[in-house]
Amino acid sequence: MNRLEEKPRIRVLDPATINQIAAGEVVERPASVVKELVENAIDAGADSITIELASSKDTITSIRVVDNGCGMSPADAELAFVPHATSKITTIEDLHSIHTLGFRGEALATVAAVARVTLITKPTMSGAVPGTRMMVDGGTVREKSGIGAPDGTNILVEDLFFNTPARKKFQKSKNTELAHIHDILEGICLSHPEIAFHLYHNGMEQLVTDQTERSLDTIARLFGSDVIRDLIPVEQSLPFMKLRGFVSRPALCRKDRARMLISVNQRYITSSGISDAIKAGYGTLLPKDRFPIAFLSLAIDTDLVDVNVHPTKKHIRLSREKEITEAVRRAVNDTLLANDLIPAAEAPAAAWEPAPPGILASRPVPYGFSEGSPAPVVAETTHAGTVSTDQRLRQTELAIDPEPTYIVSSLLPEIEVIGEFGGIYILARTKTEELLIIDQHAAHERILYEQVSDQPTDSRPSQELISPVVLHRTPKEAAILRDLIPALADEGFVLEGFGGDSFLVRAVPVVLGRIEDTVLIDEIISDLTNEQASESVTNRERITRVVACRGAVKAGTVCTREQCQRIVNQLRHTKNPFTCPHGRPTIIRFTRKDLDGMFRRI
Ligand code: ADP
Ligand code: MG
What we know:
This protein is of the alpha+beta class. The protein has three domains: 15-209, Histidine kinase-like ATPase, C-terminal domain (Heat Shock Protein 90); 230-341, 2-Layer Sandwich (Ribosomal Protein S5, domain 2); 379-602, formyl-coa transferase, domain 3, CATH 3.30.1540.20. The strands form six sheets. It has an eight-stranded mixed beta sheet with strand order 5-4-3-6-2-1-7-8. It has a five-stranded mixed beta sheet with strand order 9-10-15-12-13, sandwiched between helices. A hairpin with a 4-residue loop joins strand 1 (48-55) and strand 2. The protein is elongated and about 90 Å long. The N and C termini lie far apart (100 Å). The structure holds adenosine-5'-diphosphate (ADP) and magnesium ion (MG). Residues 36, 39-40, 102, 107 line the site of magnesium ion.
């Protein structure tokens, strides 16, 4: 047979197949459809966008997006479904000055390739131009007709992935998909506070934002007004960039990065460079495995931003990335240093009715600071616990001046202890009419933690026990403990095998004090063997945390006022007085205004 007549094995794919393949990149899941349609509505200049989801027992069955944007003429409505057809760019050069979210001309074509789409649209101020209705099914136009319609665009997407069963199989549970939609919309709402968004699911309202100039309103709508009480504004200007937004006080932190929302030129994006920079701005104010809440929007010269690196445009490439991330880090750091970081107390829940004028009119009475000591809440009798508490507190004073005459720089104001409550909380006040409540255990834990961490790695002092403590473990715990012995030795615990699954503890870190407390040693080792090893925390960090936690004055130990004052003084020496090593707050405050509000003295 003539070779030239042989049928070629390579063929050009038909357009429907090409589009289905492209859909694999752009339309990964229902949330991608929501993202693309909402972005089109934003690009169309809408100031109100409604998203309606419908679902059956286990899948999302339809997605509708309605906008009041510019709409499309009959000819444009047809072109909109053609692959690589866009009104947003003409040549590749336009990408350097792009101000729209879309530009690839792919979204509608690919969504329509893998779903059944009904579009109703009418251009604004079109006079005689009628509305258009188009139905496209798996890439094939089924219907095009004129129709009366309001200005704007209404797109319904049903039966997503009906013709791509493999993709359909990969969809997660309905609730996971709904959570993805929420995530995407939160980012979009925050980057466009000037647009009102409404999300419904099976007719029930899920998320609403109003048109506003204040992004804080949008944040409050999405995440609650509790969150905004602990946010501080950030602002920074460089010749080629403006940064604005909010970051949280350190006490309002999370285990993950999910509440670090970043937009660049009003495009909500994921950027590990920028979120690392935000975290770096906190320095030692946050534990290594804790993340702040941050809402930042960056306006960067468009020619420094390459948005065309990812089909869904979730990632971007920045020229001068180093300068940009360094500016972000510095802005966050400057802001934190310039602000009062003690978290605010909860505001009274509902809006109070104003008090009748005159009756409760408040006359601000200045609180006298230190003029005659207020009576302690608990009488300072010496009971059994006081002596051992004293020992524990003295231990933590080893490294610092116990009665500092002045503190060079402290992140906390001067604090005077008034008393204590329940052996758990220290009550105190500042010169500026604030009532502070301090978690006694958390505060002492923070003090110990910093003391231990500040010791050089190679010389964490340990002290020998008068009589070694024998520990018996289960075989599983013993296996974990055997692996930990070298790491423990670095931190000052001297342990050795004692036959079978038993161990001998010969020495413990000095910071634990002159303890011969078998129970305490047993607790520390149990904590270390039972806790899940986490990837983000080193053994050293884990041991330090456990030592700090177990070594600290326990909640329920009633301290004298003098002991409380010592804890507070030591807390003022720490680098991060605001959280315990696990990220819980150590201190909250009520301003005079908060209290007056609660008592309706307004
Ligand atoms: P891209 O957004 O990248 O241009 P799309 O496939 O998402 O590509 O949309 C194609 C075109 O359809 C857009 O460029 C726009 O002109 C038009 N279009 C899509 N959605 C809307 C809408 N909601 N309102 C007005 N025009 C729209
Ligand atoms: Mg688009």
